[in-house]
Amino acid sequence: MASNAPVDVLCMACEDTSCDFKPVKMQRRPVGPEDVLIDMKYCGVCHSDLHVAANHMSGIGMATKYPCVPGHELAGVCIAVGEKVTKVKVGDHVGVGCMVDSCLECKECLAGNEQKCKKMVQTYNQEDRSGRAATYPQGGHTLGGYTSKFVVHEKFSIVIPKSYPLECAGPVLCSGVTMYEPMKVHGVTKDSHVGIVGLGGLGGMGIKLAKALGCKVSAITRSFAKEKMAKDLGADNVVASTDDKSMLANKKSMDLIINTIPSGHNWGAYQGLLKKGGKQVLLGIHSGFAAAMVAAQIRKFSFTDTTVVSSAIGGIKTTEEVLALCAKNNIYPEVDVVPITKLNEVYTMLDAANDSGKRYVLDIEKTLTDEALASYSAVPPTLGPNPTNLNPAGIFKDLTKILFCY
Fold it and tell me: 137: cis peptide before it, omega within 30°?
C-alpha cells in the first residue's frame, strides 16, 4: 500500500572520485500508488558504475553528483506495492535495469524505446523530471542499486521468472540487453557472423546470446591467451587482433561487430573484419562511443551511412524479451558473487581490466546489514587515470575518423 513515510535503507556510497565506498544510512521516497518496493538481494557491478563514480564523464558535461550510489543491475523480491499497481504483486521476483523513468508520451516511448527519450532518468545520478523518479528528500539525484531496498515506478520494474537465479538476473538487465539491443536493431539471423570484441562481462554475455540466436560467433581478443575461455562461452572462432595472420584470415567475414572495450582504443583496427555493409557497434563509454553518437546525428542531414555506430541499453520491452530468452534457453551470465566488503577491490579490478570475464555481483541480502554498518572496514580502491578520452579533443579526433574514413 501507498505510504507517507520514507523508506529507511542502507546504501554503499562514495563521496568523491576516489570511489571509496562505505555503508551509509539513507532514505527513499514513500511508496506511491504506482510504486513497487523491492527488498534487494543482489546488485551487479557494471563498468559504467566505475565511470560514473570516478567522474570520468565530467569532460563532456556529465559531472557526477555525490554522494554517489551506483548500481543498475538490481534483483530482489517485491515486499509492497501501491494500490494502483497491476504489473507486480508482493512475493514476485523483481529487477530494475538502467532507467527508472521517461516521459511515456513521446514517439520513442510509445515505440518501446524509453532509453531514447529526452526525459529518460537513469537509475542513479540523475534528477527526477515527472515525480515517478522522485527522491527523498525531494530535489536530490537518483540513488542506484547498491542498497538494501529500492522504490521504483511499476512501469520500470522487470518481473523475473522465479526459476531464474536472482544472482544472475541483474546483469541480464544491463549487460544482457546492452548486447541484445544491437543484435536486434541490426537484424542478426541464423546466417549472420557476429564478432564480439572483448571478453569481459559484456562480451561473454554477447557470445551466449548470439549463439542462442543461431549466429556464427567469433570472439575478438588481443591474443590467443583467452581462446579456451572464449570457446567455453560458446564462440565458434577466436580472432587475435595483434596477430596479422589471424586478422587476415578473418578479413571481410563478419556482418556485425559488437565492441565492448570500455576505454579509449583503436577501434578502427577491427573495421577490416567487416563484410561490405557490415557495422561495428561501439558500446564502451569512451571518445569513440561519443563520436559515433555525434556522427549519427550529422549523417541524418547528409543522408549518408556509416559503418561505425554506437549503442547503449534497450527499452523495457526489449529488456523483458532478453530476460525471457535467457530463461528459456538457460543462458546465465558468468557471475562472481561478492560481499560488500569487496566492492572497493572490484573497482580496482575493473579499472585495471576485467580479465576474469565475470560480472561481479554484490550479495546485498547477506552483507549490506546493520552489522556491516557498525564494523565495516575496507581499503580504498587503486584507480588509474581516466581512460575514456572523453573530452572535446578526443571526441573530435574519433569523429573525424568516422566521418571521413568509415
Answer: yes
- Identify the bridge partners of residue 127 per DSSP, sorted by sequence position: 141
Grid cell locating 67 = 554522494
- Listing DSSP states for 207-247 in one string gives HHHHHHTT-EEEEEESSGGGHHHHHHHT-SEEEETT-HHHH
Please, are residues 343 and 144 in contact by the beta-carbon 8 Å criterion? no
Residue 126: predicted pLDDT:
97
pLDDT of residue 303: 64
HSE, side-chain direction, 13 A CA sphere, residue 402? 31
Q: Which of 266, 301, 337 is nearest to 73 (CA)?
A: 337
The answer to whether the CB of 161 falls within 8 A of the CB of 46 is no
State the average pLDDT for the chain: 95
What SS3 string covers 122-160? ECCCCECCCCCCCCCCCCCECCCCCECEEEEEHHHCEEE
Return the pLDDT at 221: 95
Q: What type of residue sits at position 124?
A: Y
Terminal alpha carbon distance of the chain: 55
Q: Helices 177-185 and 201-212, interaxial angle, to 10°? A: 50
Angle among Cα 17, 72, 62 to the nearest 5 degrees reads 45
Q: Which residues pair with 308 in a beta bridge?
A: 280
C-alpha cell read off for 402: 568516422
Contact 263, 387 (CB under 8 A): yes
Cell of 357: 570475464
Q: DSSP assignment of 314-363, as one string?
A: --HHHHHHHHHHHHHHT----EEEE-GGGHHHHHHHHHH--TT--EEEEE
Phi and psi torsions of 169, nearest 5°: -70, -45
Q: Measure Cα distances from 167 to 74, 172, 259, 363 in Å.
A: 9, 10, 25, 8
Residue 133 φ then ψ, to 5°:
-120, 30
262 neighbors 254 (Cβ within 8 angstroms): no
Q: Judge whether 204 and 186 are in contact, CB under 8 Å.
A: no
pLDDT at residue number 1: 61
Q: Residue 137 in contact with residue 144, Cβ under 8 Å?
A: no
Q: What is the Cα–Cα distance from 223 to 331, expressed in whole angstroms?
A: 26
Residue type, 28: R
Query: Is 348's pLDDT higher than 80?
Result: yes
